[in-house]
């Protein structure tokens, strides 16, 4: 079944329909997340707030079963629902300017004003993020381009800034972190697209070549000048691992700069959840679980701050539990993104996956797959 986006009058909405836009309240906070399945209480609330039409998604390629929320479940959801903490949002104007800016940087690495332009683009992104009280992020809300390289660069920079903010980095370091995050893959501008986007398995020679992109990036920034040693190391070392099994230098522990440690967490997560020509992206929940398993590779402080900022299952999203029940997420706990509080859409039973010992063995059921070596 094909998926379509349709503007629908609120009075004709029905329980179980999936919204294809975030719906904001008067204070600018998200009332209903994009991708959430509506219930009767929410539809009534939209009408009371004077929201007369919303975009919905028609058709589901992976699940043709309509989610029906029972009256008992609707009442429980209304009583227990706690909105997510404010997440990073970029206005369309900022997305357009930053998207155009990063494309300019990748296309003009030899320009004399490269460092100045890089600081300008990173500054615009940082100002947008730091001017709000957002403490969390949902990767779906950051999209600036359909082009993977540009989208990935902005995603990683934005996530790195939020992680760094929550780690307590001072303003000047956050500025440098934003520049390093935005330019961490600038070396890929030196690699032909037919290798970067190859659908088939890379040859050993091609993979070795791609692994040099951090070195290429370091050289580009060094030759242009105007970048601090900290930014240079953030770009050079973002694929290094704490256990020394990364590249290009194979350094370990404290020899890896803190900017690179932060960028590495954001880089791996975004690579995991994003579709590429050679693989389909993982769900956010599976990607978070994979990140949590990389304790020998990734910095624990950066990982813990990541777990306190990432939203794997936004409030109002529908999940399937390992016992086969479908449930609606009603509350998230920062630091435990895989263990939200949910309500069965059939029985209305509440499952507090973080705090109820009876739910200790109950998990959200998602298919797990192996990681591509290109994402490591």
What is the element layout, followed by pairings?
Elements: E1 4-9, E2 18-19, E3 23-24, E4 30-32, H1 40-48, E5 53-58, H2 71-80, H3 92-107, H4 114-130, H5 148-166, H6 171-182, H7 193-196, H8 204-210, H9 213-224, H10 229-236, H11 258-273, H12 284-292, H13 300-307, E6 318-320, E7 326-331, E8 341-344, E9 350-352
Antiparallel strand pairs: 1-5, 2-5, 3-4, 6-7, 7-8, 8-9
Please give a quick description of this structure.
The protein is built from 13 helices and nine strands.
Describe the protein in words.
It is built from 13 helices and 9 strands. With 376 residues, the chain is of the alpha+beta class. It folds into 3 domains: 65 residues, Alpha-Beta Complex (Molybdopterin biosynthesis moea protein, domain 2), CATH 3.90.105.10; 75 residues, no CATH class; 219 residues, Hypothetical protein af1432, CATH 1.10.3210. The strands form 3 sheets. The chain has a 4-stranded antiparallel β-sheet with strand order 6-7-8-9, covered by helices on one side. The protein has a 3-stranded antiparallel β-sheet with strand order 1-5-2, with no helix packed on it. The two termini are 34 Å apart. About 3% of the residues have low confidence.
How is the main sheet built?
A: 4 strands, antiparallel
CATH topology of the largest domain: Hypothetical protein af1432
Terminal CA distance = 34 Å
CATH class of the largest domain: Mainly Alpha
Tertiary shape: globular
CATH architecture of the largest domain: Orthogonal Bundle
The share of residues in helices is 25-40%
Mean pLDDT: 87
Rg: 21 Å
Beta-strand content estimate: 5-15%
User: What's the tally of helices?
Assistant: 13
**CATH level-four homologous superfamily name of the largest domain:** Hypothetical protein af1432
Number of domains: 3
Point out poorly predicted stretches.
60-64, 367-373
Helix/strand class:
alpha+beta
């Amino acid at each position: 079944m094909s998926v379509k986006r349709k503007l629908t009058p609120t009075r004709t909405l029905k329980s179980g329909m999936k919204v294809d836009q975030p719906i904001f309240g008067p204070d600018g906070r998200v009332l209903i997340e994009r991708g959430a399945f509506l219930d009767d209480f929410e539809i009534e609330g939209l009408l009371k707030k004077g929201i007369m039409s919303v975009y919905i998604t028609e058709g589901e390629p992976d699940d043709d079963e309509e989610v029906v929320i029972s009256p008992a479940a609707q009442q429980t959801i209304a009583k227990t629902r706690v909105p997510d903490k404010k997440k990073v949002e970029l206005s369309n104007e900022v997305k357009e300017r930053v998207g155009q800016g990063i494309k300019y940087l990748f296309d003009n690495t030899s320009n004399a004003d490269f460092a100045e332009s890089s600081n300008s683009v990173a500054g615009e992104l940082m100002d947008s993020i730091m001017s709000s009280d957002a403490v969390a992020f949902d990767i779906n809300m950051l999209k600036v381009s359909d082009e993977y390289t540009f989208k990935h660069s902005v995603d990683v920079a934005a996530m790195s800034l939020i992680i760094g903010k929550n780690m307590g980095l001072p303003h000047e370091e956050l500025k440098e972190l934003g520049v390093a995050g935005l330019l961490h893959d600038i070396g890929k501008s030196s690699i032909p697209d037919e290798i970067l986007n190859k659908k088939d398995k890379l040859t050993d020679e091609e993979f070795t070549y791609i692994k040099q992109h951090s070195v290429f990036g370091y050289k580009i920034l060094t030759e242009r000048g105007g970048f601090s040693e900290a930014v240079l190391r953030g770009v050079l070392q973002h694929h290094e691992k704490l256990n020394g099994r990364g590249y290009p230098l194979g350094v370990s522990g404290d020899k890896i700069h803190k900017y690179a440690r932060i960028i590495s967490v954001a880089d791996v997560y975004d690579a995991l959840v994003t579709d590429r020509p050679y693989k389909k992206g993982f769900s956010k929940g599976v990607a978070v679980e994979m990140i949590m398993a990389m304790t020998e590779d990734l910095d624990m402080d950066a990982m813990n701050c990541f777990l306190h900022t990432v939203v794997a299952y936004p409030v109002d999203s529908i999940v399937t539990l390992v016992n086969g029940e479908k449930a609606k997420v009603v509350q998230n706990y920062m630091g435990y993104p895989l263990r939200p509080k949910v309500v069965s859409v059939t029985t209305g039973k509440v499952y507090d996956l973080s705090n109820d010992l009876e739910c200790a063995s109950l998990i959200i059921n998602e298919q797990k797959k192996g990681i591509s070596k290109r994402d490591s």
